[in-house]
Amino acid sequence: MRNSIKTLAGVGIVALALTGCSASGGDPAASGGAGTGDETYNLVLGHAGSTTDPRQWAAEQFAERIEEATDGRVTVEVHSDSTLGTWEEMIDGLQIGSTHIVIESLLSLEAYTDLASVETAPFLYDDNEQFFEVWEGELGAEIQTAVTEASGYATLGNMFRGSRELTTKEPVTSLEDLQGLTIRTPSAQTMMDSWNALGARAEALPFNEVYSALESGVLDGQENPLDAILFNSIHEVAPHIGMTDHMFANYHFLMWDEALQAYPEDIRTAIQDVAAGVGQEYTENTVTNLEDYRTQLEEGGAEFHEIEDRDAWIEATQPVVDGLPDQVQTWVEQIRSM
Q1: Alpha helices by DSSP H, the chain
Q2: Neighbours of 212 (CB within 10 A)
Q3: What is the pLDDT of residues 56-112, one digit of tens each?
Q4: Within 13 Å and on the Cβ side, how many CA atoms surround 243?
Q5: What's the whole-model pTM score?
Q6: Rounded Cα distance, 101 and 25, in Å
């Protein structure tokens, strides 16, 4: 499926280039990528969060700032709530031009390159500072370049999400409590492998189905950063939050790199600069708001629990890390040594 979509993408881009029409639909290939300075582009941006999710703020800020930075030559249509499809479908759509930008994490690219498993590898970071040291430095840049080259997707802007936590219907404070529970994860294979290794039953399910699946008892829990839990009301149906800190992640503005590189240089630079600026502010907002997210969750009925035997969780998932590609294991060693 993935390879066939890539083939379609190539055919579509060539076909558009052959038409010689103006790039009014947002695809630079329609004008061959050689801008005359007056082309306009309408970009379609999608994400899976609600309109109260911070991703919506990022999307709206990107739309506002890129229009200003390009003197109106670039406009952006923002679509929240998976209205363009699941995040998997939206990311596939980047290749054929049905979407132009998707706000998602690096984990969403694991279906296209196993190098993206560096984000989904469990228990790599001790705290936010270690995560920032990686992703604001040379190693983070190296990882992003390698993932782009291997997958075809550009990852623009680092929008810090915080650490992912386990949210369940009943309290989980130890590995024993987790055994046999059905836990929703994204469709990234490494994440599914990790929860299975911990003794749970990993279930990949579109995020827009998680609330109802928890409410009906199909799921026992799910895992996400606090912002996703709060702004999508997950705590209403799974009020027990185990502070596993099993993974730290950024969101990025994902684009199909071939399409990005085909824009005129000034447009491409503006897209990259605006994404970076929004990402920096998003990160600052997350760091500032994490304590407030917890307070709001507690006021909404959530209960927070510390994990009593976290070392056992790390030990149980080490075989998953050992099975990752050699390059990813090298990155893991570098990260854990920081």
Answers
A1: 2-19, 54-69, 87-96, 117-120, 128-135, 138-151, 175-178, 189-197, 210-216, 226-231, 257-262, 265-299, 310-322, 326-336
A2: 12
A3: 999 999 999 999 999 999 999 999 999 999 999 999 999 999 999 999 999 999 999
A4: 11
A5: 0.86
A6: 13
